[in-house]
Amino acid sequence: MSVTVVLGLAWGDEGKGRVCDALANDARYVARYSGGNNAGHTVRVGDEEFKLHLIPSGMVREGVICTIGNGVVVDPEVLAREVRELEERGLDARNRLKVDGRAHLILPYHIRLDSSREKALGDSSIGTTKCGIGPAYEDKVARVGVRVQDIFNEKILRAKLEGALREKNSIFTNVYHEEPFEVDGLAERLLSFKELLGPMVTDTGAMLREALDRGERVLMEGAQATLLDNDFGTYPFVTSSNPSVGGVCVGAGVPPNRLENVVGVTKAYTTRVGDGAFPTELHDGVAETIRDAGNEYGTTTGRARRVGWLDLPAIKYTASLNGVTHLAVTLLDVLSAVEEVKVCVGYEVRGAPVEGYPMYQDALEDAKPIYEMFAGWGEDITGSKTREDLPGAAREFVEFLEKEIGVPVCMVSVGPERDQAIFEWTHSAIEEFSEA
Ligand code: IMP
Q: 13, 21, 114, 333: which one is catalytic?
């Protein structure tokens, strides 16, 4: 058995949670490999809606073991809250969740620094989720981070906090004119998580590798998405981790030759939260229509998402970068609300057509989309169960994406409920697709 990776092809919020939920049906393990609680995965099960930020959405499937890999940054307060909330709703989160001892912690000073820095950047701010993600990853790379395992060794914990705060406090007091943090208060709070975390902390990479050796199926749940990748995204308007496929190996501890299926998830249109170039962004009534029909408001921050047409140069770039083997197209039903559907098939930069997705920030900022038009279908498709059930125009749209991106579509979501999706979406269906 091998690994199936589910990751986003644009700027996040593609509906990865529900694609993972569908695939988790026949997976034994669901793992997070990057990011932190800046993610917002929504899964609907009947009348119930689960909004998860840190814990993999596989948790809503009974029997699935969820792991938070070494590449994730963990805010222990959020972890404790999510475990409690899931348990209140009858899910045995405590027993089915494993957290890697190498994962770094997001601490209160990271959260404060994230906000203070965004404020100081003014008009140039990134538009972060203010969860402390960037500062936590900075500390990891600067080798002054505090790790999950440090909670179990008070001496190491205090020494690390002292070392980190020496510099941080000088930034808080001298640069931002804010109160310093104290080691004692932080250490005490962190030590209080010992009981909760004790049974959960493990070497999750070793656990997943052993599971793979035993023939069990592992699903990697991407958070954020490829255009937010620190290396390959629209830098500097990106997150501080690697949500793209390379992040799986370093963030979950599995070797590359175990990655077999890479399911790239894209909405039938595009959204973005936070700042940065977005060539196909709409500023008219169509944006409002799509935002309302798709309920395009952030799960983590509640911010109204920026909305635009599907951007093929971007999706082709991210599909190629990630070695995507299958596409999942989400929220197709939302486009029932518009009269005409556009897809960006290329860009012009300063009057000249360009090949592919620009590497230069200024080229992307100046990129003018070239559109291909599609007739709208203007009818309710939420009951569609197969490709054939779709109106001709909607089918044509899906098949156009499949042909242009050169990857088979394995799932199309046509409504928020678990069963409102077309095509078989199980691993066996994916494997059949791969063999065809
Ligand atoms: P950070 O990850 O909080 O540092 O935010 C950096 C950028 O990534 C901002 O533009 C955020 O809005 C964006 N971002 C981070 N996480 C998500 C997500 O899960 N969905 C969509 N955008 C995200």
A: 13
